[in-house]
Specification:
The complex is a heterotrimer.
Chain A: H1 2-13, H2 16-46, H3 64-79, H4 91-98, H5 102-136, H6 145-169, H7 173-182, H8 188-195, H9 203-208, H10 223-247
Chain B: E1 2-11, E2 14-24, E3 29-33, H1 40-47, E4 55-60, E5 63-64, E6 75-78, H2 90-100, H3 106-115, H4 130-142, E7 148-152, H5 160-175, E8 179-184, H6 187-193, E9 196-201, E10 204-210, H7 211-215, H8 221-229
Parallel strand pairs in B: 3-8, 3-9, 6-7, 7-8
Antiparallel strand pairs in B: 1-2, 1-4, 4-5, 9-10
Helix pairs in contact in B: 2-3, 3-4
Chain C: H1 2-12, H2 15-38, H3 43-66, H4 74-81, H5 85-112, H6 121-142, H7 145-166, H8 177-180, H9 186-206
Helix pairs in contact in C: 1-5, 2-3, 2-5, 3-5, 3-6, 3-7, 5-6, 5-9, 6-7, 6-9
Chain lengths: ~250, ~240, ~210
Amino acid sequence: MVSPIRAELRKLLGLPTARVALVLGTLLAPVVVLLNAPYNRRALAAGTLPDPTQLGLRELGVGLIGALVLGVVVVSSEYTSTGDDAPGARQLTATLTAVPHRLRLLAAKTVALVLVVAAQAAVTAAGTLALTQALHGEYVPMPAPARVVAVILYWVLTALLAYAITLITRNGIVPLTLLILNSTVVSVSYLLTKVTDLAAYLPDIAGAHMFLRTEDFPVELAPVTAGLVMTAWVVALLAAGAVLFHRRDA
Amino acid sequence: MITIDRVSKIKGKTQILYDVSFEARPGRVTGFLGPNGAGKTSTLRILLGLDRPQTGTALVCGRPYRKIDRPLTTVGAVLDGSGAHRARTARAHLRWVAASNGLPGSRVDEVLEVVGLTGDARKRAGRFSLGMSRRLGLAAALLGDPAVLILDEPVNGLDPAGIRWMRGFLRDSAAQGRTVLLSSHLMGELAETADDVVVIDKGRIVLHSGLADVIGAHRTLEDAFFALTGTEAGGPW
Amino acid sequence: MNTARAELRKLLTLPSLRWTALLTWAGTALLAYAYGVTQPRGDATALAPLGYAQAGFLVLGVLAAAAEHQAGGQIRTTLIAMPRRLLLQAAKDLTLAAVTLPVAAVTAAISTLPAGGGTWTPAATAYLTLTTLLAAAVTGVVRHALPALVLLLSLYFIAGPLLRARFGAFSAYLPDTAALDQSRGAAATITWTVTALALAALTFNRRDA
């Protein structure tokens, strides 16, 4: 099992798009903290910042796009045509020739993705929170370790969400559009929570509850519950993706 | 009539073509021969206006490709792949190509017939096999009934019947007065098809003359080729 | 003329464009309903769904432009058939605009009419169409669908809101402000689109295929 995982890691880290996503996803959050520093400093001193304890954690959301792209690209790269001569040929053919047992292949891909995204999340969380401490330490206490772990978990689950949807749709356009759209300040899911309380159980809304406290949501989910809800979504979508992958023609 | 005059091309930091000059005359099949990476495709792309050379000119019937009005009625080009988008049907592909040069829709059915793809017209190009893709590319090239045919590895992917058909088709085209330029590295095939041969190696033309002259002292075109290009017979690629 | 007719055929026979249009309409209808149920009637409610619908129009532009560069080598066929590149680029832009306009009009109508914002429909249609052209121009330079899409979506939905929140003055210069704040931003959208189209045309003309 180790060989397929190593192969998938090599494949992922060899993709230019993945590398860019890795680097940008890691740098974005700290950069945003830096850019916002003057404004935040003033607001903290004046006591006008809405929720100082969440400073740093909130900014981490910006880097999520890197995790999203990684999740998409792990799958979409298998489905891009390898050449002009026979556009039906895809990298997937070579992959399945090397590792014909499809579920084992998916498991290897999933593990590789989780490793890369978890590492990226850990690095960017550490960097962003350390930076926040350095800049605003007097006003912002260091978040509890459990919350930091929750953030990393949220990143990994988001990447897996993108990954699962791409497995189902076989191209990256749909998951990228949906998920980036949803990561906006006023996401579609958030909008739907106004319409129906059920929307609070959508994966990204629920997931955010793992480490953010906001008064705006109609239903308050305890962090652990939130984590379970998001994991349930991811597992369901992954299962659907796995079944389709297993049964479809390559 | 194709005239290539002192064409040089630099790609990135590497020079890939050095002062390439040769002619392809009407009524003859001119074979463009060379090892992989010698510059055959690069030369053809410059000829067709896809890439710009640093120096030199490449003219078809006395004009640069980009200046020819309705070029498909003068030149038909077959490069690698089908040239069609994966999701489009063969017929839809040929219809837009025909429309681009003001050619009537009836030509689409005619060329499909010529290359033997009538039954596959409604299939998406992404589902085509290698040989079918080549034939679709040829069909598009024939839409305008052009006087000049330029083909890059035309028999690549064709089965024996297809190869024989192609050979006959190209010889007939030349006999009808067309200018036919084809690049290949299939020696045996070229020996059966070409009248004139141009040999290119590492971006330079090493020989340009009639087939009989090229073979000359050597027994076959293959021997002549290896002697001229200095590649080791049987060595690594 | 011929070039335009060929480009039109290409757009109309690309299945992914139809799907994008349909999904955008469906999504806009869903959002219009959500806003209609939770917010009072008025201009803000009429235009809010468009903030999201514009993503569909970005996708439309990306897919239309990227189709030339996917495996199969269609860009070569296109350039061999129509080698005059500036003319070709102009024909591409015009036909894309022509095809996008009705899609944009329907989207604008779905969004604005239920909330009583009918006066905004023409402006919204124009905005959405320009958005598609901008996306197509960017994709023409980048030449790959996924990176172009990530770039555009990041600009519109991540960088844009961040910049707006922090530096209010930036608003007038971002391409998507027109969707959010109708009184300003029209000039920005037009400028961004025209610049992108010009840049795309220039690179297309000079580059190797």
